[in-house]
Design brief:
alpha+beta, five-stranded antiparallel beta sheet, CHRD, CHRD domain-containing protein, signal
Length: about 180
């Protein structure tokens, strides 16, 4: 009996609390790039190769009781995998369409001023995009702006090594 009264008393409070915060769900978009030397401008002859993956998730939450307000924001995660690669200095994201060089917008890895000659095979780096580290035309922007570049086909990965300071591998992000 006391349990029923307690539940009945809590029901209106829980109803209000649930009305204040409603999670509508998340949407995820995935992009991938094949990293090759012949995609670098100018092309590079290398035995190295790799892949890059980006996953952007839009989070949507509704807050407020009667005055509901929708909050949207994007987060991003990445994984860069390589084979037969040595002396990695940086792994960068640049803003430009395929076959064009563009501005640096993010460092996935590095700069590493003391790269090693150890051959890298497997995941080189993975993590989450930090909007505070966006650069160039994306400086002081949001992760959603980087997602927009990938969505529009204007985002590529450039892997820079000691032996190829203009890039050893490159790949344009495309929908996965």
């Amino acid at each position: 009996m006391q349990r029923r009264r307690a539940c009945a008393a809590l029901a209106p409070i829980l109803s209000v609390l649930l009305g204040l915060l409603l999670v509508k769900g998340d949407t995820t978009e995935k992009y991938s790039a094949l990293l090759l030397g012949n995609e670098v401008i100018p092309a590079v002859n290398t035995k190295a190769s790799g892949t890059a993956s980006l996953s952007f998730t839009e989070h949507v939450t509704t807050t407020g009781g009667e005055d509901r307000h929708e909050v949207r924001f994007w987060t991003g995660d990445y994984t860069i995998t390589v084979a037969n690669l040595t002396n990695v200095h940086t792994v960068e994201a640049h803003q430009a369409p395929r076959a064009s060089n563009g501005e640096l917008v993010y460092y996935f890895y590095g700069p590493n001023d003391n790269p090693t000659a150890v051959v890298n095979n497997g995941i080189l780096v993975s993590g989450s995009i930090d909007k505070g580290q966006l650069r160039g035309p994306l400086r002081n922007k949001n992760v959603s702006d980087m997602r927009d570049r990938a969505h529009d086909g204007d985002l590529y990965v450039l892997v820079v090594t000691t032996q190829n300071p203009n890039g050893e591998l490159r790949g344009q992000f495309e929908p996965a």
